[in-house]
Amino acid sequence: MSMNTFGHLFRVTTWGESHGPALGATVDGCPPGIEITEEMLQHWLDKRKPGQNKYTTQRREPDAVRILSGMFEGKTTGTPIQLMIENTDQRSKDYGDIVEKFRPGHADITYWQKYGIRDYRGGGRSSARETAARVAAGGVARAALAALMPGVEIAGYMVQMGARKAEPSRYDLAQIEQNPFWCPDAETAEAWAADLDALRKSGDSVGAVVEVTARGVPAGLGAPIYGKLDTDITAAMMSINAVKAVEIGDGMAAACLTGTENADEIRMGPNGPEYSSNHAGGILGGISTGQEIITRFAVKPTSSILTTRKTITKSGEDTEIITKGRHDPCVGIRAVPVGEAMMACVLLDHLLLHRGQIGEAGGRIGPQG
Amino acid sequence: MSMNTFGHLFRVTTWGESHGPALGATVDGCPPGIEITEEMLQHWLDKRKPGQNKYTTQRREPDAVRILSGMFEGKTTGTPIQLMIENTDQRSKDYGDIVEKFRPGHADITYWQKYGIRDYRGGGRSSARETAARVAAGGVARAALAALMPGVEIAGYMVQMGARKAEPSRYDLAQIEQNPFWCPDAETAEAWAADLDALRKSGDSVGAVVEVTARGVPAGLGAPIYGKLDTDITAAMMSINAVKAVEIGDGMAAACLTGTENADEIRMGPNGPEYSSNHAGGILGGISTGQEIITRFAVKPTSSILTTRKTITKSGEDTEIITKGRHDPCVGIRAVPVGEAMMACVLLDHLLLHRGQIGEAGGRIGPQG
Amino acid sequence: MSMNTFGHLFRVTTWGESHGPALGATVDGCPPGIEITEEMLQHWLDKRKPGQNKYTTQRREPDAVRILSGMFEGKTTGTPIQLMIENTDQRSKDYGDIVEKFRPGHADITYWQKYGIRDYRGGGRSSARETAARVAAGGVARAALAALMPGVEIAGYMVQMGARKAEPSRYDLAQIEQNPFWCPDAETAEAWAADLDALRKSGDSVGAVVEVTARGVPAGLGAPIYGKLDTDITAAMMSINAVKAVEIGDGMAAACLTGTENADEIRMGPNGPEYSSNHAGGILGGISTGQEIITRFAVKPTSSILTTRKTITKSGEDTEIITKGRHDPCVGIRAVPVGEAMMACVLLDHLLLHRGQIGEAGGRIGPQG
Amino acid sequence: MSMNTFGHLFRVTTWGESHGPALGATVDGCPPGIEITEEMLQHWLDKRKPGQNKYTTQRREPDAVRILSGMFEGKTTGTPIQLMIENTDQRSKDYGDIVEKFRPGHADITYWQKYGIRDYRGGGRSSARETAARVAAGGVARAALAALMPGVEIAGYMVQMGARKAEPSRYDLAQIEQNPFWCPDAETAEAWAADLDALRKSGDSVGAVVEVTARGVPAGLGAPIYGKLDTDITAAMMSINAVKAVEIGDGMAAACLTGTENADEIRMGPNGPEYSSNHAGGILGGISTGQEIITRFAVKPTSSILTTRKTITKSGEDTEIITKGRHDPCVGIRAVPVGEAMMACVLLDHLLLHRGQIGEAGGRIGPQG
């Protein structure tokens, strides 16, 4: 019931604000005996780290993660794992403007209306810096998955920026690490670079669509009716800052299909059931089919822009605001490793749930079935 | 942690299968002193009830709900409310075909792979009949909302069937009850009627998009970071059978916007903050803004169709299947009251959470602010 | 977070009031493939059933349980199991006296003060009739334990009534079913019979101590720090009506021991570690040791007595009350099967939790250790 | 579901091991606007701090707590509060003996059997050092209670050490801070001093009974059936290291009473209902009556003693062990502030739950009742 906790058996509680002394994640429920090092977690944090290129915020944060508990001699002990990331670049500046004014599109006004107090420094708790803690926790989940469900491959990448979409026929996962947009389509990545340069000059921002897939997930994961695998994946992605929509498989496009078109036909393959297509995105009835799991989420444009916008003050006076400072023109870019981390957490969580309720049971398909 | 329970403080646990003796919902956490009658709940169940017109399944179910506990002298007592709906039309028939074969697009194969046993009769637990229990529970939530948060209006309606979308400029909520599609656009409703007649003749089915809105929700509801109001609404909708995507506000379209376009500007009105637009769908940082809350979800086409489809048997043999029987050509139609019910449950749940953590506190905006 | 739900993965939600149409338990999280029949559950309910001898309430209830969901062809499917017990003997009578007056020692006054409304008929939700639902759910847990952790033996019995204690040197589990007090000491059972006859004549009641043990529980069950096996067993027993204290192992007597006396020494046996004694009650650090698990709980005397007692009315006037009607002179007797049921639920729950977090891992002791 | 989390709405997750770099508590659900300083929390930590007199472990720990998040300008913001205590006195020593041997009475063997890996340094996670985090979190709960439920007074004290009990007729709460045993009976405190001196010389230890009371708790707190106030208090106390039994009100002694003796009669007082006695310990049906809440728990003697004890090694060989090092001869002494902290957490949690489900409702007793 913790409102800052995610997961059923693999529980991640994130804490900390953008400009506080530190932030982190309390990870409870990780199985014992998993080999984890700070370097392993740092690898993923570095992928998300700000200031790596001109397309992301110039805030300089090493985002160095420390493991404070739950480990002994390099392995998890089954006790809570505390992951702490100290904030270093809390540029001392005059927050004057945002102390009294609410930035349109930000959570400033709603945090005030809900809590009656808010840490306005860099957005406080509502800052995307919180996602650094998710990425660290996701690193723990990845290590456990590698040990308990070897062969799972999680891939996140950007498939759309503004109105320009990447071309699936050109997808090459090897390209993802080759451009600053985590784009599997090199040609589109170049176009995005030009698009974003223009946007940055105008001080504007733009939205994006991120796709996250998981291959090698066995059939049977997911807990209907209210702990469905797709429900939990959707909730995980929607909880990421600025996300406004989540799709599974064909997503919104499924509305346009007929049942004949949508049916993923089944045939028996050498290693079990195979499907003629994957409109379902690897999930039926909330349970994994063994196919690739596919989700996409839309990230709205950064609300911090250099265009003057109308707003009000805490005392209710109409005014205007320009959000200066160091911001991502396309926050979707840095949402990629966050989406991957959330996918890893959900998959591990459901693996543990499945072991708990089902154990080794479950139905086999085949002559002995 | 119950996998068949939804909600934090207002907890709904649904139970029952399509062809079992009964199904229902165990509702825990409803505040005491709320006036509820079986008639009030029946009103909503009748809206969802099958067999009401040629566009929905011809299964005949009265869906009569009984309140077995939690009430005294017409009011809730604060103890668990048991809502039971007996199944009457369990047409005794030969299930032969689906006993051994898995229906493509259905959860038959994944339930088998997960549990090693499945109630194949009408889909068992994975049948959309489970949503009757949600609608009954939603009736309880509506009654509590009416008492604790008067003025809230929840409206659900279908905005797209197949490729044909309703025209917002023609929306008239008064039209919703005037056509079998819960469509606010009378002109589109007529076109859908023609579309669906053709589909039914061909034994095919089609997807749809349902929109659910809530007006009169005060600012401040929602529990960041992992109990955000939009996260919970999204999870609630995604948990409904056949849903493949959920949007909040502009949803997927937000990806195409610039920050300048997306910013909902704020001005001070006579009763508090007002916004120039509602791209956010009434939620910022996971907390309600006081604007209309807007969500949409895509429902895939019914997988039960008269077109022959390739599949396999439990013993792993390739075969074909045609799904005869009584099915909704567009299951999206009957998803409308379900979406409304889920919205009611989420809003009540977050109202209780807010009362619990915040009580009467929260920030006022204005001179005294 | 449901306040009427018990358990982590094996979740039991009880519902219903003493004089409502029915009461029951919604059991979620039971593993699939477990053979269960209504007869199996009825066996345990009959053990608790009222009106079986002159020492328990003369209310006549068949307490017939019906399984409404979660089963298919005699086996659990992994979906929620709904257990319903209809109330038949709701003797229509004038509740006049307890409508306005609060019975001392009962929850009448606190339910009123909390909820502002209460079902005064037979105590409503606070009646010990609620425990019938626990016993039914416990039957499900026993069946699952028999399948997943064979060899576990749960035994509950009364060891004290009033000031008279049973003599451990005379314990014979075979005697438990031979007397109306579930007492393993036949000699003491006879003395209790005389004691209780006298008490009944005087219209008074008396307290008792119940002991529940579990043999054959493997080492390793329990989830520190806040889901310790002893914590959950203690909470389970304390949640039973009229229980005022719970002990594990030596319990309160541990306070009088020195460390030297209290240490259960360890030696290696043919099948693993053996202990020289069991002061710990089979649990160390919240985790089972493999020894017999021992818990005891004190049940206060029934508050419904024929002695006039001072009390007040809802309108705050001083008055007196005599609680007539059908009551157990020693409610501890019927608490025995309830304690057994709670023990079964806790053990199954922790078995599932252990499978989930640990799986087949865990440390072996021995040469290969 | 986190196994290291306690509470429903006010959620405390403790983390850390005895000899790790740090330990702490992640506190989620604290209402916003509560004034808290590190000094306030330190006050309670100092009360529990080791090495304060010859009767507690000589381990030297400043137990300095840092607040890393959830605060802004001296007040809580409603976001997670991270409390960190760094371990300083991790005396580098040869752990040789306990690396391979299991200490009788300790959790060494069960942690090994459950997890297959254990941090043997000082007991790792099972060390009583974990309770420092509880005391820090309890300080947060106390501050919130002072603001939201003013007038509540929580008092913890030791009432028994070994066989020697304090004399209630001599209780004087002012004495509690005047002796190293937190004993309200000065005469008994002196006797305990002599008893403990003798025990320490012999290298032995002894058990104790701690009582914790709460005055000024309004009627109506508690959430039946499975979130009863007494159930949660009992679970909270039982989760403390070395606790073997918990009593509410008369506790085990209730078994010896008759209904006539046990009934707390009710009369109307100037400020509401008054009771002739408090056998119930301030709780009826799991809900507070407004009387003083009384709980007691038994703490077993420290298992670390200088007497040679038989045990085994990880490889299953019989051996012997003497537990040298710095240990509390009566761990019950330092359990006093821990019990107080747990009481504070439970009371705040139930206040928030009550606000959430009931709000301002609830029944009044009196003419207008």
Automatic annotation (TrEMBL), chains A, B, C, D:
Keywords associated with the record: Amino-acid biosynthesis, Aromatic amino acid biosynthesis, FAD, Flavoprotein, FMN, Lyase, NADP
Binding residue positions for NADP(+): R48, K54
Textual note on the cofactor: Reduced FMN (FMNH(2)).
Record flagged with keyword RNA-binding: no
Catalysed reactions, semicolon-separated: 5-O-(1-carboxyvinyl)-3-phosphoshikimate = chorismate + phosphate
Gene3D superfamilies, A to Z: Chorismate synthase AroC
Cofactor: FMNH2
EC number: 4.2.3.5
Classification via InterPro entries: Chorismate_synth, Chorismate_synth_AroC_sf, Chorismate_synthase_CS
GO biological process, one term: chorismate biosynthetic process
Binding site for FMN: R125, S126, S127, N241, A242, G285, K300, P301, T302, S303, S304, R326
GO cellular component: cytosol
Pathway it works in: Metabolic intermediate biosynthesis; chorismate biosynthesis; chorismate from D-erythrose 4-phosphate and phosphoenolpyruvate: step 7/7
Top enzyme class: lyase
Function: This reaction introduces a second double bond into the aromatic ring system.
Quaternary context: Homotetramer.
Family: Belongs to the chorismate synthase family.
Protein name, entry field: Chorismate synthase
